[in-house]
Write a structure and sequence with these properties.
This protein is about 75% helix and about 0% strand. The chain has one domain. By secondary structure, the protein is an all-alpha fold. The radius of gyration is 15 Å and the shape is globular. It starts with a helix and ends with a helix. The chain has helices at about 5-30, 35-50, 60-80, 85-95, 100-110, 110-115, 115-120, 125-130, 130-145, 155-160, 165-170. The longest helix is centred in the first third of the chain and has 27 residues, at about 5-30. Helix 1 (about 5-30) runs antiparallel to helix 2.
Length: about 170
């Protein structure tokens, strides 16, 4: 069993990763580009290479995946009465980032469609490689732009515990 100190360290890591991801989503909305998400992913890869050099993915990528999946799930629940949500978010991605990015995001868009679809997105990690996490950021940016009026506070308000995902909210 983890000590209180160890749990606090994990919670601090989750909060830092959540903050970085939230900034990437916000930057993607305000200045549409795939760059903010790719820079965030680059930071996670760098952390993981240091922490687990022999692993394909490490703890930072895992926490990022869990955080983004949770936020997509919260958005899916919030938008349950909008059956066109996936098409509208993908249309925003195409219009603001380009067709290539829409095509990549389509692989992981099932996270906005259904809970079962959310469970299947990790099967696309090998095909998307470093863009796997980036596609999740693009989807959230599209949801914020289309349904939150471009205001990141819309996404933050979906999290019952506040703007940062907590370890208890992820696990």
């Amino acid at each position: 069993m983890a000590s209180k100190q160890e749990l606090r360290e994990v919670e601090q890591a989750a909060e830092a990763i959540g903050g970085l991801l939230m900034r990437a989503v916000e930057a993607t909305v305000t200045e549409p580009s795939p760059v903010p998400s790719r820079e965030a992913v680059g930071e996670f890869l760098s952390i993981d290479r240091s922490a687990a050099p022999d692993s394909v993915s490490g703890p930072a990528q895992l926490l990022a995946t869990l955080t983004l999946s949770r936020w997509l799930g919260l958005a899916r629940e919030e938008l349950a009465d909008r059956p066109q949500r996936v098409d509208e978010v993908l249309a925003w991605i195409e219009e603001n980032l380009g067709k290539r990015y829409r095509a990549r995001a389509r692989y992981t868009a099932s996270a906005l469609e259904s809970e079962d679809g959310a469970g299947e997105i990790t099967t696309y990690r090998p095909a998307l490689q470093d863009d796997f996490l980036a596609t999740l950021v693009w989807l959230l940016a599209g949801a914020v732009a289309v349904y939150g009026g471009g205001d990141i506070e819309w996404l933050k308000a979906l999290e019952p515990a506040g703007p940062s995902a907590t370890v208890s909210g992820l696990l």
